[in-house]
Design brief:
The complex is a heterodimer of chains A (109) and B (113). Chain A is mainly β. In chain A, 0% of the residues lie in helices and 61% in strands. In chain A, the strands form two sheets. In chain A, strands 2, 4, 5, 9, 10 and 11 form a six-stranded mixed sheet that branches. A five-stranded antiparallel sheet of chain A has the order 1-3-8-7-6, with no helix packed on it. In chain A, 33% of the residues are buried. In chain B, a hairpin with an 8-residue loop joins β9 and β10. Chain B is globular, with a radius of gyration of 13 Å. In chain B, strands 2, 4, 5, 6, 9, 10 and 11 form a seven-stranded mixed sheet that branches. In chain B, strands 1-3-8-7 form a four-stranded antiparallel sheet, with no helix packed on it. The interface between A and B is medium-sized, with 23 and 27 residues.
Chain lengths: 109, 113
């Protein structure tokens, strides 16, 4: 079992829909990243969370440390949101980022 | 400046060639990382440098040789690669404190022929 599990692995939705991507992890962490990667491209950090909730534009990220769970929400989704979204954790005391398998999101017009 | 710059963006090399990938950041980050990413897979950690010293080597074959000549620069020297080494190579950096954000470069798309 991976230390970081994401669901769903693939998600297709229509423009305007509310999107939720989930991330569960099994290790103690000091922080969690939500990352975005477009096809063939580099990785952009969307959020880094260690508690609570963060919002940036149409994106919202939440984390529940007790339940070892985080969610990424996209409101009013748009075709340009189509990308792979990756959850990555910084385990306590470690220097490494441990990555989930990613969620491939496709938003159709 | 919040960028991690990787060069070149694309590289095609033969199996007998020697080439180098370069990564640069000017954010004062003292942790720098090399990752390898195959298509439709998450990045896999290769190396971590902390304060310009190699701190993690994830059992990477010796045909990949990292170097950190100063706090802003990270190189990955390539020699006698195999076609299965073709991948996107990503560099990242972050401050060496808890709960600090990682910044990623755009990657070098490497093809070994």
């Amino acid at each position: 079992k991976n230390e970081v599990e994401q669901s769903p692995q693939n998600l297709t939705a229509q423009e305007g829909e509310f999107i939720t991507i989930n991330c569960s992890y099994s290790v103690g962490i000091s922080a969690l990243h939500w990352l975005q990667q477009h096809p063939g491209g580099g990785i952009v950090s969307l959020f880094m969370l260690s508690s609570g909730k963060k919002k940036h534009g149409r994106l919202i990220a939440t984390i529940n440390i007790q339940e070892k769970h985080s969610s990424l929400h996209i409101t009013a989704s748009h075709p340009r949101d189509s990308a792979v979204y990756i959850c990555a954790v910084i385990s306590q005391g470690a220097q490494k980022l441990v990555f989930g398998q990613g969620t491939r999101l496709t938003i159709n017009p | 400046d919040t960028e991690v710059t990787q060069t070149p963006k694309h590289l095609v090399m033969g199996m007998t060639n020697k080439k180098s990938l370069k990564c640069e950041q000017h954010m004062g980050h003292r942790a720098m990382y090399w990752y390898k990413q195959k298509a439709k897979k998450p990045p896999e950690l290769m190396f971590v440098y902390s304060y310009e010293k190699l701190s993690i080597n994830e059992s990477v074959p010796s045909r990949f040789s990292p170097e950190c000549p100063n706090s802003s620069l990270l190189n990955l020297h390539l020699h006698a690669l195999q076609p299965e080494d073709s991948a996107l190579y990503l560099c990242a950096s972050r401050r060496l404190l808890l709960n600090t954000e990682a910044f990623f470069g755009q990657g070098t798309r490497l093809t070994v022929v």
